[in-house]
Specification:
Blueprint (H helix, E strand, L loop, with lengths): L5 E9 L2 E8 L2 H14 L5 E8 L8 E9 L54 H23 L1
Antiparallel strand pairs: 1-2, 1-3, 3-4
């Protein structure tokens, strides 16, 4: 193989690396192989890359450039929802009427996420006192058992 050789590869992920499904000389043939791979492996990502070999050794060093990518997970990420749920299920206000005022939510109604600015977080004092007393008791038991 001469330096500057260009090929096209269709690949799918295998663990942390990419497995080459086909390596062809022509872009049109690579695109056809890509479509076939998407049909066969539609639930996994598949990519078509341009491979430019930089060395004279067979399949030695190469640079690559992404041409096409099939990602079945694109856009399937969960959408954020309203925490309290009041906005869901409300009908739009009729023309000419004022919408009812939104009732303010207490700061303790949050169920997920970090506390907001100015929101108080309860400190578990009872847990801290219980852990301290357990530690003191463990030290006393240790001292009594090893003094004998």
């Amino acid at each position: 193989m001469a330096s500057g050789l260009r090929k096209y590869a269709v690949q799918k992920p295998k663990g942390a690396k990419w497995e080459t499904l086909s390596l062809v000389d022509d872009l049109r043939q690579g695109q056809a192989e890509f479509r076939t791979a998407v049909e066969l492996h539609g639930k996994t990502p598949v990519r078509l890359i341009q491979v430019d070999f930089t060395g004279d050794e067979a399949l030695a060093d190469f640079d690559w450039h992404l041409i096409e990518l099939h990602d079945p997970n694109k856009g399937a990420r969960p959408r954020p929802t309203v925490v309290a749920g009041r906005e869901r299920g409300q009908k739009p206000p009729k023309p000419g009427r004022k919408p009812p005022p939104a009732s303010p939510q207490p700061a303790t109604s949050r169920t997920k996420g970090p506390p907001g600015p100015g929101e108080k977080v309860p400190v578990p004092y009872k847990t801290y006192v219980a852990a301290f007393l357990f530690g003191v008791l463990a030290i006393i038991v240790w001292a009594v058992t090893f003094k004998m």
